[in-house]
Task: structure prediction
Amino acid sequence: MPDANALEKNYKTFSDRELLDLRSDGSFSEEAEQVLDKELARRKLTFDGARRYYAPEWLDKADMGLVGIIELDDGERITAEVVGLNEDGDRLSVKVVSPDSHPWNSPRNHRDFPLRQIVSFEPQPHLMRQWPFSDPCRDRSSRARFVLMTTLFLSWVLGSLPLFFLLMNEPYGFQEASIIIYTIFGIFFTFARIGGGHSGPDLPPFKFRCPAVEPQIPRLLWRHLGFLAALFTLQTAMLAIRPHLPDWWNMYTRKGATPFDLSLLLLCFGLEHISK
Result:
C-alpha cells in the first residue's frame, strides 16, 4: 500500500476534476482519504464546492422551466419548477408548487436547495397542463365553450318569443317557458364575458373549470333551483287570480300589453333581483 508521501505526490498530478471525482467515489482507505482531503484543502476545493465541477446524474434532467418531483435526503418530496442554478453552481433554485397556500408567483414559494441535499429529480412535464401552471381561469376559450355560449345566446335572443307562443296554450306552458328562458339567461350572464365600452365595466368570463368557480357551482345550482321554484309559484298564483281581477287589468294599452302583463313582468324581474 503506498505511503502518505507517495499518495500526496500522486494526487498532485491529478487535475481538479479527477480529484473531485475520486473524492465522490469514496472507495479508498482512511489514510488515502485523509491525504486526498489535505490536497483538496490545499487547492481550496471543498466537497460542497465540488458540485460545480461534477454534477449528479439527476441534474441532467432538471432543465430550466421543467416541473418535477424533488426528493431530499431527509425523505421530503417537493413538486417544483426549476428556475436554475446559482452563480456558484452548488444550489438549485426552484418555485415550489403550493396552490393551497401562497400564490403561485409569491416570493415565499421560491427556495434554494444545496445539490448535496437533493437525492433525485423526476420530471413531470404533464403537470404544466394542470393548475397552477396553466391557469384555467384566464386561458383562452376553447371551441366547445364558444359553441356552448353562442348557442345559449342565440337561444335566448331568437328563441324566447317563439318558445312562449309555442307553449302558451299548454297547461303550465307559460311557467315552463319562463323556467327555460331564465335558466339560459342565468347560465349565459354568469359565465360569459359581459360589459365593456358604454355598457359598463368589462368583466372577465368565469371558466367552468376554474378552481375558484368549481366549488361554487353546487351553491349556484341550488340557488337557481330555489329561484325557479319561487318563480313558478309566483306565476301560477298570478295567473290563477287573473280571471278574478277587474276588467281594466286585462285591457291592452297602446304598447300592446295589459296592466296585468306589466305587473307580472315587474314582479318576475323583482324576484330575479332579490335572488342575486
